[in-house]
Structure formats: C-alpha cells, structure tokens
Design brief:
This protein is mainly alpha-helical and about 140 residues long. The protein is built from 4 helices and no strands. Helix 3 packs antiparallel against helix 4.
Length: about 140
C-alpha cells in the first residue's frame, strides 16, 4: 500500500490482519501436530490462507484492479472506499479462518452454518462498498 493511502486506522487494520494471519498459522500448526494431521493437508491449508491474504494485500497496492478502472478514475473517494473494502474483506477472511481453527483446537467443532454466515457477511460488505463506489463514479461523471 502506498504511504499516501495509509491512515492510522488503515495501519491498525493491517497490523490486526498480520496478527490474525500469525494466529491462524500458529493454531493450524498446533492443531496439525496435536491431532496428527497429514503434512500435505496442513501445508495446503497454510498455503491457501497465505495465497489469499497475499492476493488481497496486492489489491491494496493496486486498488484500480478491483473494479477494473483506469488509474485516473480510481482517485479520491473511489480509491478510499476500494482500499477500505479490501482491508475489511481481508480482516473478515482471516477472522473467518481463525475462529473455527480456535474452536477446533479447543475441541468444539463449529456448525457448518458459520461458514455461510461468514461468506454472507463478506458479500454484504463487498456489496455495500461497491454500491458506494458506483454512486461515486456516477457522481464524478456528471
């Protein structure tokens, strides 16, 4: 993320995201060693989480890719809303991975509805921000 786009709240969000990633990785390793999970499955879980987190981080550097906008249109409030959406989605994704991992490590598997709720929340956040971005783009065109 560019320095010009970083706010205090954004820095806190990024730090929280890093803590969530570290917590997820630690719990997955703990869970894998404690319950003798095959190394291939553990590596796939860790690699997938890091891959998605890395992709979302990359979108923080290039927010114009989110909505396929030219750089000149992805400025001001549109850029700000896009970056906020990416940060929130990244936090929600990592929290959605971390919560069931903690629950599993404590020996209380979660119901499958949790995944649907997490996905629904992520979709609602994306929808709200996309509506704001579309409205701002229409406002800029007038």
């Amino acid at each position: 993320m560019n320095k010009k786009d970083m706010t205090a709240l954004g820095a806190v969000g990024e730090a929280l995201g890093i803590l969530l990633v570290a917590g997820y990785l630690a719990i997955q390793i703990f869970y894998g060693v404690s319950y003798h999970i095959p190394p291939s499955r553990l590596i796939c879980n860790l690699a997938l989480a890091l891959l998605v987190y890395g992709f979302l981080t990359m979108l923080g550097f290039y927010p114009e890719f989110v909505n396929q906008l030219p750089k000149d249109r992805c400025q001001g409030p549109v850029r700000k809303d896009t970056l906020a959406m990416v940060r929130i989605e990244k936090l929600l994704f990592m929290a959605a991975l971390l919560v069931p991992s903690v629950s599993d490590a404590l020996g209380h598997p979660m119901d499958g509805a949790y995944s649907l709720i997490a996905i629904g929340l992520m979709l609602v956040v994306a929808l709200v921000f996309e509506i704001r971005i579309i409205r701002q783009l229409h406002k800029n065109d007038k």
